[in-house]
Design a protein that fits this description.
With 498 residues, the chain is an alpha/beta fold. The chain contains 21 helices and eight strands. The strands form two sheets. Strands 5-6-7-4-8 form a five-stranded parallel sheet, with helices on both faces. A three-stranded mixed sheet has the order 1-2-3. Helix 17 packs antiparallel against helix 18. The chain binds adenosine-5'-triphosphate. GO terms for molecular function: ATP binding; DNA replication origin binding; lipid binding.
Length: 498
């Protein structure tokens, strides 16, 4: 039949339209590997390399492909999507628009299934058939790279990551900054029915997200050992997914993840910008939530702030309960230090713990590291822990933790505290209600930053350094004579330092 070439051209045009409509990444993932075997009785046969891809194309793109075909060729009424296999398909190469397209009169011959797991090869490219029709799905952004895939091939451990025995609820110290996240994790762990789904925990580095996730998983396992809980990092999720693609094993991958009672994914920000992993994650997530299975996610930012995440995923992640872990306060740091010192059975003077809680404000991981260092040092040299030895042993860490508080921050905090406008810090107004907070801010700027008096003056509406000196003196006097004023200042200082 002479229509072969025109069918070829039609398919090329349809592919062009699809690419424009769905975008480069989705096109390369799901549509580029498609090829057309022919047309028979008004039905176009489309060949895909895997069953997973067939399911995907049928659910996501079939209607559109059919409509585009009907637009191109009035003869077309339906499409059929079939899985190809190891032998070269009797079709045009998806990437080779010059090849002739055969029109077939027989149903597409579907070659026997390919082995599910070819033996791992060092090379990234999957074994293609005839080197033509199959283009490996792209792995989203550049990080999903051949090297990543290669390293993943070695990793064939259980899908759930091991839980750290130290990360339990019993060992988690609760304070204001983490009380909501802790209560939510406890509720989910002890609930018999799914309450909020997903539970989304977020907070800065080293503030206890992983600890809480593990604690939750331990608790669920303890309450009901039959519940299937999978905990893993988003990074590992991505590697598993890549490996599944690599081995054409995506159905097993899906089944594994979609048959759990509780799915916990840590550090989900890792898949930002990795579009194909996000896509898969999104579907896994939806499938579980639809079946009323519990999903728990952690991240370093709130769902709405996760850049590089697809909008629909971000909004879906925020549907349940979003609980944040705030930076630690002095009290929480001290509480954590005391708990860890007890656990280590170490005899550490309270003033050393207070000193550490005051100085190491970055995160709990560093705080713990500092404690371990001074304990180890004391054991090695056989001397008791003192404030002096602590300062000596930790001098590098302490320097790095010298918080650089800015004058802007001080002005903002003080203005908030006294309920005045930040602009009043710079204004010429002399009313007491404004002038006193301004003096407090100047005083704190002198105490908490390394700025000189003239520099501070400049930041307060170009005031003279003598004005700053006067403010510092005045605040010191008031602190000495008025305990509630002194308390206010102390509170502000702590807030700024935490
Ligand atoms: N409230 C707490 N009580 C006791 N230990 C804590 C607390 N918060 C954090 N930790 C400890 O601090 C360390 C770091 O915590 P974790 O690994 O959970 O942080 P994270 O928020 O997951 O960090 P990252 O963002 O790097 O993944 C752990 O050893 C953890 O046990």
């Amino acid at each position: 039949m002479s229509v072969g070439v025109s069918l070829d051209q039609q398919w090329a045009r349809i592919r062009g339209r699809l690419k424009d409509e769905v975008g480069e990444i989705a096109y390369r993932s799901w549509l580029q590997p498609l090829s057309v075997a022919g047309i028979k009785g008004g039905e176009v046969s489309i060949v895909v390399p895997t069953r997973f891809m067939r399911d995907w194309v049928l659910t996501h793109y079939a209607d559109r492909i059919r409509a585009l075909w009907a637009g191109e060729n009035p003869e077309v009424q339906s499409i059929d999507v079939v899985v190809a296999s190891t032998s070269p398909p009797p079709v045009m190469a998806a990437d080779n628009d010059d090849s002739d397209l055969q029109v077939i009169d027989e149903p597409v011959a579907v070659p026997p299934p390919r082995p599910v797991r070819p033996s791992p090869e060092p090379a990234y490219a999957p074994p293609g058939y005839g080197g033509s029709a199959y283009a490996p799905p792209p792995y989203g952004a550049s990080d999903e790279s051949p090297t990543a895939v290669a390293s993943v091939l070695e990793d064939r451990t259980d899908i759930s990551a091991p839980l750290d025995p130290r990360f339990t609820f019993e060992n988690f110290v609760v304070g204001k900054p983490n009380e909501l996240a802790h209560a939510a994790a406890r509720r989910v762990a002890d609930a018999t029915a799914v309450t909020f789904n997903p539970l989304f925990l977020y907070g800065g580095v080293g503030l206890g997200k992983t600890h809480l996730m593990h604690a939750l998983a331990w608790q669920i396992r303890k309450n009901d050992p039959n519940r299937k809980v999978i905990y893993l990092s988003a990074e590992k999720f991505m590697y598993q997914f890549i490996r599944a693609l690599r081995f054409k094993d995506t159905m097993a991958f899906k089944q594994q993840f979609r048959s759990v009672d509780v799915l916990m994914i840590d550090d989900v920000q890792f898949i930002s910008g990795k579009d194909s992993t996000q896509e898969e994650f999104f579907h896994t997530f939806n499938a579980l939530v639809d079946q009323n299975r519990q999903v728990v996610i952690s991240a370093d930012k709130s769902p709405s702030d996760l850049e590089g995440m697809e909008e629909r995923l971000r909004s879906r992640l925020g549907w349940g309960l979003v609980a944040d872990i705030h930076p630690t306060t002095y009290e929480l740091r001290l509480g954590i230090l005391q708990a860890k010192a007890d656990a280590l059975n170490a005899n550490i003077p309270l003033k050393v713990l207070e000193f550490l809680a005051h100085k190491i404000t970055s995160n709990v991981r560093e705080l713990e590291g500092a404690l371990n260092r001074i304990v180890a040092h004391s054991e090695l040299v056989g001397r008791a822990i003192t404030l002096e030895s602590t300062q000596e042993v930790l001098h590098d860490l302490l320097r790095a933790n010298d918080r650089r508080i800015t004058i802007d921050e001080i002005q903002k905090r003080v203005a908030e505290h006294f309920n005045i406008r930040v602009a009043d810090m710079h204004s010429a107004r002399r009313a007491r209600a404004v002038a006193r907070p301004r003096q407090v801010a100047m005083y704190l700027a002198k105490q908490l930053t390394a700025r000189s008096l003239p520099e501070i003056g400049r930041k307060f509406g170009g005031r003279d350094h003598t004005t700053v000196m006067h403010a510092v003196k005045k605040v010191e006097e008031l602190r000495a004579s008025d305990p509630s004023f002194a308390e206010d200042i102390e509170l502000l200082r702590r807030m700024l330092e935490s």
